[in-house]
Amino acid sequence: MAGVQDQLEIKFRLTDGSDIGPNTFPAATSVATLKENILAQWPKEKENGPRTLKDVKLISAGKILENNRTVGECRSPLCDNPGGVTTMHVVVQPSSVEKGKKGANQAKQSKCVCVIL
Description:
By secondary structure, this protein is of the alpha+beta class. Helices cover 28% and strands 26% of the residues. The protein has one domain: Phosphatidylinositol 3-kinase Catalytic Subunit, Chain A, domain 1 (Ubiquitin-like (UB roll)), CATH 3.10.20. It has a five-stranded mixed beta sheet. Strand 1 and strand 2 form a beta hairpin. The termini are far apart. May serve as docking site to facilitate the association of other proteins to the plasma membrane.
């Protein structure tokens, strides 16, 4: 019975309302490993998918999960559903390199020079 409790059934809800999973993971699985699983199973027909782990944010029980934490550490007593499926929300954000490029372009465009004579 203890072995069953060490396993969690998780599905990942994408922003368009579709799901990846559910899949079963040991409680010792890291959040980074979950993100790798999402990258591997991301539907090829969906546009703007994540390219790296840094592009993916996982949210469970209203909290953004950190890569170095385990699934067991991230469980919320409010969301525990023995024998049920836990839903984690997936948010895809562009990598910081793309954000930096956009930010630099916006800074150039919004630059204003005033001269008083």
